[in-house]
Give the backbone structure.
Amino acid sequence: MSEPLAERIRPKTLDAYISQKHLVGEKTGSLYQQIKSGNIPSLILWGPPGTGKTTLANIIATESKRPFYTLSAISSGVKEVREVIEKAKQSGGLFTTKNPILFIDEIHRFSKSQQDSLLGAVEKGWVTLVGATTENPSFEVIPALLSRCQVYILNPFDKKDLEALLHRALKEDTVLNNKEIELKETEALLKLSGGDGRKLLNIFELIINSEASNKLTITNELVLSKVQKNTVLYDKTGEQHYDIISAFIKSVRGSDPNGAVYWLARMIEGGEDVKFIARRMLILASEDIGNANPTALVLANATFQAVTAIGYPEARIVLGQCATYLASSPKSNASYMAIGKAQQTVKQTGDLSIPLHLRNAPTKLMKDLGYGKDYAYSHDYQDNFVNQEFLPDELSGTTFYKPGNNARENAFRDFLKKRWKDKYDF
């Protein structure tokens, strides 16, 4: 059969859909009831490749019993957008409560004018837009269109999801049913997939098709030997797109400017989107360097603006400067860990009461209720500091930010210890 394995076993119903329980789980899914009721808003599905965005779009249309139209941002222009919107209108968008679904794959590749051409149809309800993107829609989708859509994030498949995909393939695919295949070891398959379900199935099928025998035992050694022989150098729209940016980020994080510029060169020579590279460095500057060298974030932001303005080929010079600077900077993920821990605490403890002395008191009633009472204005005290509580009572003494072990954050630690004495664990 010419159809790839991933397409042959693509699930058709919500019950058969693997992973993304935070979206489609019966009890916990934020999209589950909307899909079942058919009340689907225009939405953007944002997640890495191979996490089920296209499949979910198809299931949404099937479950809600709506006409389904699809466009690829790679091959469609304004003309194609207008043509499919006209077809959608004629199929019932004006006369029924269930508007047709227009699915646009890789919507981040649409230009501003192409995205503008969607606005009227979405706003007037001629279509329900479902867009799929691997890029942050805040950067790649125009504000007017983004404001008319809900954004839902899809996560990479975990080990359990990936193994379930393999077992489904062996059980349901008519081609594989004719072979005797034993999944003796799966670690290499899972690692190479990188959480990408489509990539996993492509590798699995490649290995099976490379063997003449109908009897096959899948081992880590077999997988690695076959995949290494069939790996392409770089494809900016394919699987290694994420593998190479991962190698680049890890090289910078590991303070190796040589590794950083090598993987950067691989991306540049492969024609990678200049903004994609610069955006990843911007995130990395805060996540992995942070307060160990705050200038890194300033330079990364300047790099993003510069390469956006000048483009290739000169952008490679700016990218190279930024990459070597970031790689050569001291590293700290302390602020990244702090916000993560704080968010987790908020999820676990809910909306704890704001201490009265920290509340705003713009009216007499609020003042009478004690809002703002006993708040000490820091600038009225020596060294612009006074010891008072800034957390809810239930969290008093909790430490979220622990300065990293580097020159700048060691100075932060000394400053905070001097101010807070033994209150926090630094």
Notes: The chain has a mean pLDDT of 87. The chain has four domains: 20-153, 159-229, 240-327, 355-420. Strands lie at 43-46, 68-72, 101-105, 128-133, 150-153, 180-183, 215-218. Residues 159-229 form a domain with the Helicase, Ruva Protein; domain 3 fold (CATH 1.10.8).
